[in-house]
Amino acid sequence: MKLDLKKLKPGKRSLVVTIVALLACAAVYLNWSYQQTEEAANEKSLSSEYEAVDSRRILGQNYEEITSEASVEVPDMTGYFDATRLSRKQARDEAVSILVSTEASTTASSEAKANASEEIAKIAENTVVEARIEGLVIAKGYEDCVAYINANGCNVVVAATDSELSESDVAKIKDIVVSETGLTSSMIKIIEAVS
Q: Is the pTM of this model over 0.85?
């Protein structure tokens, strides 16, 4: 059934046009409303995800599992250090992504946004300090190392030397970490990765 507007009386024609316009407006409104509801749910999800996730725990979880003992046995030293750096970077990228989403969220509280900003700054600072520690330890003559700063302190995994790390080796490495981080010696764990 085709509706021919020309055959309708002037009053009915304007009524039909008005109804079609109202239906179009209703469709646009419903679409907009649905999108707003969906966006709010996504932002709320991101906000609650941030509040439920402590980025320090995210960043420390994998690394702590790998370095929980005094020495770590690894089949390939280069592969171990590369894999550990990659794992650290991926964990940080994930945490920063969550924090950036929270910071940009329109539904997150101002406190959550401020906390997210602080955490992003802390992650960036830790990344720079870890790189300096690694460079200084390698400059002291050790083959390779990975440093990791978390809420509990700093862990430094050092490639095995011909002999075990001596107390003077541990003291040298701890001195570097203390000077770069300001942490106390008791908050620093030196781990020798042996193949």
A: no
